[in-house]
Amino acid sequence: MENVLFVVNPAAASGRASRVWSSLRARLPCLRTANVVYCDDASIARQAIIDALTPAIRRIVVLGGDGTLHTTLNVMLADAPDATRCLGLIPVGTGSDLARGLGIETQPLHALTQALEARAGHLDVLRLRCGAQSRYFINETSIGMTAMVAERVNALTHRNTGSFLVAALRELIDYKPKWARICLDGQLWREGFFSMVVVANSTHFGKGMCIAPRADATDGQADIVVVEAASRAKLLAWLPAIYLGLHLNAPFVHHARAQSIDIDTGPDCLVFEGDGEVTLPAPGNVTVLHGALLFSGASDHAGT
Hints:
Elements: E1 4-8, H1 16-27, E2 35-38, H2 42-52, E3 59-64, H3 66-79, E4 86-91, H4 97-102, H5 108-117, E5 120-130, E6 133-137, E7 140-144, H6 145-154, H7 163-174, E8 178-184, E9 187-200, E10 222-228, H8 232-244, E11 253-258, E12 260-264, E13 271-274, E14 277-281, E15 284-296
Parallel strand pairs: 1-2, 1-3, 3-4, 4-15
Antiparallel strand pairs: 5-6, 5-15, 7-9, 7-13, 8-9, 8-12, 9-10, 10-11, 12-15, 13-14
């Protein structure tokens, strides 16, 4: 365990992660002396991970949700880049959508074994650039109603399996479509009013919504899903289809694939959501970095 760093968010899943970590340590004595960073305080988590990443650390295992994974990913790619370091995940979060998309074990002990022992493969990463700022995402990034839903969920002290759905329904009542111009690989694709624009690396977001059923995190391209402005009645009628990945058949939903995506929202002050976190202001460019991350636990989905 000397070359492994565990990044643990005890507050993930309304405190369930703390109980999971305690249970694992009770069952596996080797974890009691492991290198651990506790990152329940997001304001200091990034620096704490940076400080813990000595040259001896070759594998990082995150125990938490997609937000904890997002923070760790950005440290690995922006602050302490090392292409030979491997990332693994024990998914214990409110959403844990990347785990769904990659087929990662949900039982913590099995996920730990997967993270430590499974064949590592390379996953694509999304890089968002907004002016001089940039962020990396492993699962997806989006703009529109999704950012408002993420903000609602993140403001909750206690979250449960229905938190994302309830937040989406509440946001749907008040949300007014926004204008955007979307260019794919340098060519204009869509321009007009929309409810959401999602750039997906993997298949799921929003606690089980199969937003991009055709996405593959190893193919060097992102899946772009645009939901045009539509009546609340139409959006509500098609909402169940998102969980089944059948919404691409809706007349107001458009799908494409690209390696570089430019999104301009004109004068509207919109912000991007990514991996469940509200991040940078539009306009922005999303680029797929093919095979940029070595990941353990998704060997059936990742290339070598």
